Amino acid sequence: MKNITITSDSQDSSLKIVELNKPELKNAFNPEMISEITEAFKQLSQDKSVRAVILKGAGTAFCAGADLNWMKSMVDFSFEQNIKDSEKLWEMFEAIAFCEAPVIGLVHGAAFGGALGLIAACDYVVADEATKYCFSEVRLGLSPAVISSFILRKCADAHVRPYMLNAEVFDSVAAQRMGLVHIIKNTTDGLTEARKFSALGAEATRETKKLLNNIEKSKSEKSWAEQKKLTTTVISERRMSKEGQERLKGFLNKSK
After folding, report:
1. How many angstroms separate the Cα of 70 from the Cα of each of 77, 82, 165, 179?
2. What pLDDT was estimated at residue 255?
3. Domains of the chain
4. Closest Cα partner for 93 from 66, 67, 114?
5. 101 in helix, strand or coil?
6. How far is CA 147 from CA 15, 43, 119, in A?
7. CB of 164 closer than 8 Å to CB of 196
């Protein structure tokens, strides 16, 4: 896999580390990375020897969201192409959220746009104090649609709604208050937190995660499948809207 690396913790091989490995792009994801992340978590979920999975980013940032080159290609997508593309994005977050092993996110530098979906899909998140976060989609005429189901599984609507609507940058303290982040500390020490899972019953931990996921699904007013259809439709419509097209093109031209 060229966009991510999968390794074992040096002290405990049952702890697997999935690292986003495009530091020159601040680990912004594209279709290839999305596919690799999805496949990696599906495989790790099936491996009963894995006690926990650590998700982190190489370089100076956890993840900057969508890759600019991917965003350029979206501008000319048909509605059907947008739906298919958005469903793959959903499936990546779902593979992380429903991985049978606990997933620990180590977040540093920056987490913008879709990166917040990655964080929300994790079970336990350790973040550097200096990390910056932003639901940046509305700046681009888009919507944090696909990630919203995963965000709202973890966070109260009242805590995240203002940031989704105003696209303001916020810090780790605010992220912890809304429930995205659990512990604020230097992520170089994050493995210490992850290694706590080594002392737990592997089967019990997996079964507990499965139980919690099933309870959460059963509480949803809309079925999980309906949420997938709703959110992928909204983002596809926004990408093709006049405002979305104008703002995306303006952002991409500015980024040059």
Report:
1. 11, 12, 24, 30
2. 63
3. 4-199 (3.90.226.10)
4. 114
5. coil
6. 26, 22, 10
7. no
Q: What is the spatial distance between Cα 25 and Cα 63, in angstroms, rounded to a whole number?
A: 9
pLDDT tens-digit series, residues 62-104: 999 989 888 888 888 899 999 999 999 999 999 999 999 999 9
Question: If we measure between CA atoms, which residue out of 138, 92, 142, 83 comes closest to residue 115?
Answer: 92
DSSP-based three-state secondary structure for 67: coil
Q: Token pair of 48, please? A: 């009963």
Provide φ and ψ at 33, rounded to 5°.
-65, -40
Instruction: Give the N- to C-terminal CA distance of the chain in Å, as an integer.
Output: 28
Give residue for tokens 């105003």: 166
Distance of CA 98 to the CA centre of its chain: 13
**Residue 256 clears pLDDT 60, i.e. is over it:** no
Q: Taking the mean position of all CA atoms in its chain, how far away is CA 129?
A: 19
**Residues 6 or more apart from 204 whose CB is under 8 A from it?**
none
Angle between helices 224-240 and 145-154 (to 10 degrees): 140
84 is written with which tokens? 């298919």
Query: What is the per-residue pLDDT across 106-160, written as a single tens digit (0 to 9) for each?
Result: 999 999 999 999 999 999 999 999 999 999 999 988 999 999 999 999 999 999 9
Query: What is the C-alpha to C-alpha distance for residues 79 and 240, in angstroms, rounded to an integer?
Result: 7
Nearest to 109 by CA among 147, 139, 64, 67: 64
